[in-house]
Design a protein that fits this description.
Blueprint (H helix, E strand, L loop, with lengths): L6 E8 L1 H18 L3 E7 L3 E4 L5 H4 L2 H7 L2 E4 L7 E3 L3 E9 L6 H19 L4 E3 L3 E4 L2 E10 L4 E9 L4 H7 L8 H11 L3 H5 L5 H12 L4 H5 L6 H15 L2 H5 L7 E9 L2 E10 L2 E9 L10 H6 L6 H11 L6 H12 L20
Parallel strand pairs: 1-2, 3-4
Antiparallel strand pairs: 2-6, 3-5, 6-10, 7-8, 8-9, 9-10, 11-12, 12-13
Length: 362
C-alpha cells in the first residue's frame, strides 16, 4: 500500500446506493490505471449497510428501518452491519496489490495507515480480532475488504466520530431489542467515539483531514491535491446504482448463499404446529405446515400460500399467521416462535465489525 500517485476524494452527505456505487466505480478505475484512490466521506442520516455475505433479516429490523425511512443497502465488502451517518467517517481505499496477501494482512496494513491519522488527533489505536480498530479496548472503527474481478482491492472503514445509539439500538437485531435502554448501554460499553476520547465534539471531516495527513505525512489534503470523480466514473457509478445498488435483488440477497431452512413451532387450540420455511436471500421461497393435530384445520392450508415470497421478517410473518389462525393461537407465542426461528444464525453483537473467515477468498 503506497501513497504514491494517490488520488484524494472528499464527499459529505452521500446516499447509501450512490456512495457504495461510487466506491466500486473508483475501484474499477483503479484496476485499469493502477492509480490508488482514497475517498473520505460522510453519509446522510442514516444509512444501514449490511455486509456482503450477511442475511439482511438476521441483522436488521426491516420494519424499524422502513418506519424510520432509513437507507438500507449492502456493501461490496464482507463483514458486519453498520449504521452510517453524518457523525461517522466512511473511508474507501482502492489500490492494486503488489503481491498476494491474505485478507488479514491487507486489513492490518490498512489499519496501520488509519492509525497514523488517528494518532495525529491524539488517539492511539490497535488492531483487534480480525478487523477492528480499538482504543482502550473499545471499538472505534471496523474494517472490510473486497477484491474486484479487475484486480484491484477495495478496503472500507467506518470510523466513529460520534454515534447515534438510539438509532442503532432500534434498527439492529440485538439481544433484548425491546429494552432499548439496556441495548444502548451495551452498545456504549463496547464502542467508543473520537469525540468521547478527545473530550470535545469531533466531526467526520476533521478526522478526514488527519487521516489524509497521516496517509501522506507532510502533505495533508492540500498536498494530495483533492480530486473529483471523472465524468466516466460518475457515469459508471450511476450505472451501478441502476443495475446493482438500487435494486432489491442486491440489497436483499446474500451472494453465494444456499437457501436456508427455519421452523417456527407454536401451540394452537387444535395441536402443536410447525411452520417450516425455506428462505432465499431475504424472502420466503417456500413454506409447509406439519404438526400433531388430529385433523387438518382448513385455515392451516392457507399458511404456505400466504407466506410464499413474503419478506423473511419475523413480525410480518407472525402477524400473517396469527391473523389466519385468529382465535386459535396466542399472538405473542407466535411472534416469539418466528423471532426464534429467524434469529438462530444472527450475530447480534458485531457492531460495525467486518469479520472475515480465515483463509477467505473474496
Amino acid at each position: 500500500m503506497s501513497a504514491g500517485q494517490l488520488r484524494l476524494i472528499v464527499d459529505t452527505g452521500v446516499g447509501a446506493a450512490s456512495g457504495l456505487a461510487m466506491d466500486e466505480a473508483l475501484c474499477d478505475r483503479c484496476a485499469e490505471t493502477g492509480r490508488s484512490v482514497l475517498r473520505l466521506y460522510t453519509y446522510r442520516d442514516h444509512a444501514v449497510l449490511v455486509g456482503r455475505y450477511q442475511r439482511v433479516e438476521a441483522e436488521v429490523d426491516l420494519d424499524a428501518v422502513a418506519e424510520r425511512g432509513l437507507d438500507l443497502n449492502r456493501r461490496p465488502t464482507g463483514g458486519g452491519t453498520i449504521v452510517m451517518g453524518a457523525r461517522q467517517l466512511g473511508v474507501a481505499y482502492a489500490f492494486r496489490e503488489e503481491g498476494p496477501a491474505n485478507p488479514k494482512q491487507v486489513l492490518s496494513r490498512f489499519g496501520n495507515l488509519l492509525s497514523r491519522g488517528l494518532e495525529r488527533l491524539g488517539i492511539g489505536t490497535t488492531l483487534a480480532g480480525k478487523n477492528d480498530l480499538e482504543a482502550g479496548g473499545r471499538k472505534l472503527a471496523g474494517l472490510g475488504i473486497y477484491r474486484s474481478p479487475g484486480g484491484a482491492t477495495l478496503c472500507h472503514a467506518s470510523i466513529l466520530a460520534g454515534i447515534d445509539l438510539e438509532v442503532m439500538a432500534a434498527v439492529l437485531r440485538l439481544p433484548a431489542a425491546k429494552l432499548a435502554a439496556k441495548v444502548e448501554t451495551e452498545l456504549a460499553r463496547r464502542t467508543v467515539t473520537a469525540s468521547e476520547l478527545l473530550g470535545r465534539e469531533v466531526s467526520g471531516i476533521e478526522i478526514a483531514e488527519e487521516i489524509a495527513r497521516g496517509w501522506s505525512p507532510g502533505t495533508g489534503m492540500a498536498g494530495l491535491d483533492p480530486d473529483r470523480p471523472s465524468p466516466a466514473e460518475e457515469e459508471e457509478a450511476a450505472r451501478l446504482v441502476d443495475a446493482k445498488y438500487g435494486t432489491a435483488g442486491w440489497v436483499l440477497s446474500r451472494e453465494g448463499a444456499e437457501p436456508r431452512e427455519a421452523v417456527a413451532t407454536f401451540r394452537t387450540s387444535f395441536g402443536t404446529v410447525d411452520v417450516a420455511l425455506k428462505i432465499a436471500g431475504a424472502a420466503v421461497r417456500d413454506a409447509s405446515v406439519s404438526g400433531d393435530f388430529l385433523e387438518v384445520e382448513p385455515r392451516l392450508l392457507a399458511i404456505p400460500r400466504a407466506l410464499r415470497w413474503m419478506p423473511a421478517a419475523d413480525r410480518k410473518l407472525a402477524a400473517t399467521v396469527a391473523g389466519l389462525l385468529e382465535g386459535a393461537v396466542d399472538q405473542i407465542e407466535v411472534e416469539r416462535a418466528f423471532a426464534s426461528a429467524l434469529a438462530t444464525d444472527a450475530s447480534p453483537m458485531r457492531i460495525g465489525s467486518c469479520y472475515l473467515p480465515e483463509g477467505s477468498v473474496l
